[in-house]
C-alpha cells in the first residue's frame, strides 16, 4: 500500500507541476492548491486515472501542497524551478491528522488495517498528539516515518562561556579554545567500500538486474555514511550549544567565497551547512546565541595576537609564525579565535566594527577579498 501511495503521490505531484507550467505558458494563468485540488478530484473520476482512488486522498492533496511550497520557494528566490519526481528517487507521502490514528504506541495510516511495524529511533514526548506523519523511502530502499509534534522545550540555565568555531580539513570542527572534533578518517573505511561498490556498479550492464542490485548496495553504504555523519553532527552540536552561551561561526556563504576549493574541502563544506543549521535551531531551543558571520573577514590570515594580516596563506600550511609579533599559530585554532572575536564584535556593535586591534579595514581591500582565507 505504501509503494502504491508513493506512486500516486508522485503522479499527482508531476501532473500538477505539468498543469501549472502549461497554464502559465499557454494562458498566462497561475494555478494554486485550491484549483488543483478541484482538478485532481475530476482527474480521479476519469477512467484511465481511476487507480488514484485506491490510495488515501489525503497524501495526494499534501503532494499538491508540497508543490505550492516548491513554487513559493522558487518565486521567493530560495530554490530552482520545481522538477518532476522520479521513480527511483526518494519517495514520500504525507498524512494529515485526519488520515492516521495514533494511540500513543501504534500508528495506523488511512486505507491500512494494521498499524505500521515501526522500529523507533527515539520515543515521542509523552502525551503528544502528532499533527502530521510523513512516510518516506530513501535511495537505499529503507522506509522512514517522521511525526510532527508540538513540544514545550525549556531553555537551559545560562553559562558564562563563548566559543568560535572553524571548519578544518584535518578535523571537522576546531574551537577557539583549541579543541578539535570529528576526524574525517572516521569515514575512510566506509568511503573506500563505497568507492568499490560504485566501481562495481559502473561495470554492470545498463538496465540489467545486476546493475540495480549493485546500485542498491552502493546506496546502502552511502546511507550508512550519511547516517553516521548526521548522528555525529547532532551529538557535537548538542554538546557545543549546551556548554556555551554564545557560539560564533562563519556562514556557508562566506566559506564559499574562498575560491581555492579542493574536493575534500567541498565535501566538508556540505557537512558545514547542515552543522550550522543544527546549531541554529538548537541555540533557539535552549536559549543560546548563535552569531553567523556573513561578511568575509580574514580569519585565517590574521594574527589573533597582534592583528597583522598575512598576504597569503595556502591551504597546506598548518602552522605559521607571525612576522610582526613572533607568536606561533595553529592555522585552524587562530582562525577560530578570530571568528569568535569577529562574532562578538558583530553581535555587540553591528557589521562595521572589526575584531581586535588590527589597523586595516576588513573586506574593503580588493586584494584581501580575492586572496586565500
Ligand atoms: Zn602577530
Topology:
Blueprint: H1 2-27, H2 33-45, H3 57-75, E1 91-96, E2 100-102, E3 107-109, E4 132-137, E5 143-148, E6 162-167, E7 173-175, E8 180-181, H4 188-203, H5 209-243, E9 246-250, H6 252-257, H7 263-286, E10 289-293, E11 319-321, E12 328-330, H8 331-349, H9 366-370
Parallel strand pairs: 6-9, 9-10
Antiparallel strand pairs: 1-4, 2-3, 4-5, 6-7, 7-8, 11-12
Helix pairs in contact: 1-3, 2-3, 4-5, 5-7
Bound molecules: zinc ion.
Q: Your description of this structure?
A:
There is one protein chain. The model is unreliable at 352-373 (pLDDT under 50). Helix content is 44%, strand content 14%. A hairpin with a 5-residue loop joins strand 4 (132-137) and strand 5 (143-148). The chain has helices spanning 2-27, 33-45, 57-75, 188-203, 209-243, 252-257, 263-286, 331-349, 366-370, and strands at residues 91-96, 100-102, 107-109, 132-137, 143-148, 162-167, 173-175, 180-181, 246-250, 289-293, 319-321, 328-330. Helix 1 (2-27) packs across helix 3 (57-75) and helix 2 packs antiparallel against helix 3. With 373 residues, it is an alpha+beta fold. Zinc ion (ZN) is lined by residues 303, 305-306, 308, 322, 324-325, 327. Zinc ion is lined by residues 303, 305-306, 308, 322, 324-325, 327.
Please give the count of helices: 9
Hetero groups in this structure are:
zinc ion
Number of beta strands = 12
Helix content: 40-55%
- Terminal residue distance: 53 Å
Summarize the structure.
With 373 residues, this protein is an alpha+beta fold. It has helices at residues 2-27, 33-45, 57-75, 188-203, 209-243, 252-257, 263-286, 331-349, 366-370; strands spanning 91-96, 100-102, 107-109, 132-137, 143-148, 162-167, 173-175, 180-181, 246-250, 289-293, 319-321, 328-330. The chain has a 5-stranded mixed β-sheet with strand order 8-7-6-9-10.
